[in-house]
């Protein structure tokens, strides 16, 4: 992959050559490149006033807004490493993250920096090369303290070059940013767009679950590139069908979905709503950035079953490792290992996860591979399909079940907006499955209908024992995915069978 100009150089070139061009759109108001640079310069004054060592990182605690973008921009332009966690984390978690990430200060938009108390006990910093690091993102924290993922700026720049060239991001082009600021998706939505002179249309996180707001925003603004999690498209399509069934978004040329399985019923409707758009399924992790891309055929969208994860991006290498620890050479099931030109060198604060960064299982090359924890299946034609998480494997009545596969089947129901499947120990079966389902408004979805849907697609052992149907959104992690650890079944006794609430 060819080297591309660094972000600092590329952004400053936009400020110099097109200072009055729109850089951001937020609540109907535009911020030009000159104005954004001036905001970043003002925010950068916070860094000057702190007693920071040459390589000392800072924390950034910010909800998405133009001021927050300017604050992150100030750190990047100053060459200062920064840790950008979700502001939705509990205060105790944030303090631990900043302290164990080596941050004595956390910057806040339009406010004085916060002093971070030292971590209890010795620092948990890992020996990870940070000489080229700018962004330090975090995982969701679903398996303990969130993992700090330092990303090399050279890798971010290489990814930016690929994304801009692949989706035509540049002056006069608008990219919708749906993800929160701490998401790795923003490397494309925000930072690639600003490096290449485009306009970022920011979705306020406070309105991100309002499908009618999303509809109005896309109808009002000429957006060319759109990347979001499948939930975005479900919310948007519901609003379109309820308010403007004939609505189309003709300016959109590229529609990307990532982060979760796209329901067939949602995918099938996208070509009509985005008549000019190419459709892509993108696979990646925070640790590796985007790794695979699959372009969906518009004519058969949503009618061919599960989508493959696609082909590797330029410079990406992968392996599928079977239960015997050997890389598969043909079809089969195994864990996906990935090596990309954009990946982290390792977690900064979790020594217990060092095993996830390793060499090729067969020693075929010297690159570092990341064990994704994702189970994939390669068919005889060479296409690779995501099956589920290796840590989501459970035994029910002696049958191996992957809860992610059960979730995928449930989300395919046209009246299901969100789903979470969890396990609970059962003395009789070993484990039993419980699920919470958020149904579409006015759908009339019930327990019997869902059970019939599952019975046609799953083995009997994989049909959840308990199905809880709700109308409100399911709880989310900091990365916007359904938080299975926060799902409760308060009115279901341990011995319940076939109950619905």
UniProtKB/TrEMBL annotation:
Region Disordered: start-end pairs: 480-501
GO biological process: amino acid activation for nonribosomal peptide biosynthetic process; secondary metabolite biosynthetic process
Listed Gene3D superfamilies: 3.30.300.30, N-terminal domain of ligase-like
Domain AMP-dependent synthetase/ligase: 13-348
A GO CC term assigned to this protein in UniProt: cytoplasm
InterPro entries given in the database record: AMP-bd_C, AMP-bd_C_sf, AMP-binding_CS, AMP-dep_synth/lig_dom, ANL_N_sf
Any GO MF annotation of the entry: phosphopantetheine binding
Domain AMP-binding enzyme C-terminal: 405-481
Xref: PANTHER family: FATTY ACID SYNTHASE, NONRIBOSOMAL PEPTIDE SYNTHETASE
Name recorded for this polypeptide: Acyl-CoA synthetase
């Amino acid at each position: 992959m060819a080297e591309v100009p660094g972000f600092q150089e590329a952004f400053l070139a936009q400020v110099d050559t097109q200072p009055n061009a729109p850089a951001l759109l937020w609540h109907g108001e535009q911020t030009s490149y000159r104005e954004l640079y001036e905001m970043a310069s003002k925010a950068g004054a916070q860094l000057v006033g702190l007693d920071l060592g040459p390589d000392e990182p800072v924390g950034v605690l910010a909800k998405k807004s133009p001021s927050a973008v300017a604050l992150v921009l100030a750190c990047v332009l100053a060459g200062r490493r920064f840790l950008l966690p979700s502001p939705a984390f509990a205060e105790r978690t944030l303090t631990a993250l900043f302290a164990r990430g080596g941050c004595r200060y956390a910057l806040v938009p339009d406010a004085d920096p916060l002093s971070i108390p030292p971590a209890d006990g010795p620092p948990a910093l890992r020996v990870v090369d940070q000489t080229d690091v700018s962004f330090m993102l975090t995982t969701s924290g679903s398996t303990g303290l969130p993992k700090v993922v330092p990303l090399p700026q050279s890798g971010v720049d290489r990814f930016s070059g690929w994304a801009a060239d692949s989706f035509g991001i540049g002056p006069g082009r608008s990219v919708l940013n749906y993800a929160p600021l701490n998401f790795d998706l923003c490397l494309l939505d925000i930072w690639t767009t600003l490096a290449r002179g485009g306009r970022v249309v920011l979705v306020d996180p406070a309105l991100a679950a309002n499908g009618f707001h999303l509809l109005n925003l896309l109808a009002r603004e000429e957006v060319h590139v759109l990347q979001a999690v499948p939930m975005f498209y479900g919310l948007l399509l519901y609003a379109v069908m309820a308010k403007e069934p004939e609505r189309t978004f003709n300016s959109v040329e590229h529609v990307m979905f990532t982060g979760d399985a796209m329901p067939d019923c949602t995918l099938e409707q996208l070509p009509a709503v985005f008549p000019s758009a190419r459709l892509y399924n993108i696979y990646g992790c925070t640790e590796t950035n985007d790794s695979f891309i699959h372009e969906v055929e518009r004519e058969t969208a949503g009618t061919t079953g599960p989508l493959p994860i696609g082909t590797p991006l330029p410079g990406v290498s992968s392996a599928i490792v079977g239960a015997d620890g050997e890389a598969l050479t043909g079809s089969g099931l195994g864990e996906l290992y990935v090596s990309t030109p954009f990946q982290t060198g390792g977690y900064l604060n979790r020594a217990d996860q060092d095993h996830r960064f390793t060499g090729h299982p067969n020693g075929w090359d010297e690159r570092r591979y990341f064990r994704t924890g994702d189970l994939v299946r390669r068919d005889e034609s060479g296409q690779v399909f995501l099956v589920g998480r290796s840590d989501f494997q459970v035994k029910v009545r002696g049958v191996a079940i992957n809860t992610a596969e059960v979730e995928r089947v449930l989300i395919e129901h046209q009246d299901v907006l969100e789903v979470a499947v969890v396990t609970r120990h059962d003395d009789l079966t070993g484990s039993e499955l419980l699920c919470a389902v958020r149904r579409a408004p006015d759908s009339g979805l019930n327990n019997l209908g869902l059970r019939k849907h599952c019975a046609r697609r799953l083995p009997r052992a994989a049909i959840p024992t308990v199905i809880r149907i709700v109308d409100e959104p399911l709880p989310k992690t900091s990365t916007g995915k359904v938080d299975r650890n926060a799902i409760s079944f308060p009115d279901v006794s341990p011995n319940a069978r076939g109950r619905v609430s």
